[in-house]
Amino acid sequence: MRVIVDMDTCASNAVCMGIVPEVFEVGDDGILRLLNDRPPEELWDKVHMAANNCPTGSITIVED
User: Fold this and answer.
1) Domain spans of the chain?
2) Collapsing DSSP states into helix, strand and coil, what is residue 61?
3) Could you tell me the pTM of the whole model?
4) I want to staple 50 with a disulfide (CB 3.0 to 4.6 A). Which of 6, 10, 19, 33 is the partner?
5) Phi, psi of 14 (to 5 degrees)
6) What's the confidence (pLDDT) of residue 22?
7) How far apart are CA 36 and CA 34, in angstroms?
């Protein structure tokens, strides 16, 4: 699994960070950072939940 964030549409609202902080982080500058674009299998369910709950639909998951 690979995670892609479209930074052109991302609002950095931290919904994804609240679901899976091991993968997403909003820094002190208010900008989202993707901490791990290939998360371990034990986080896949949470990553899917984060993508499904992204208000702007900016998170894409690519199955390898």
Assistant:
1) 2-62
2) strand
3) 0.94
4) 19
5) 75, 10
6) 98
7) 6
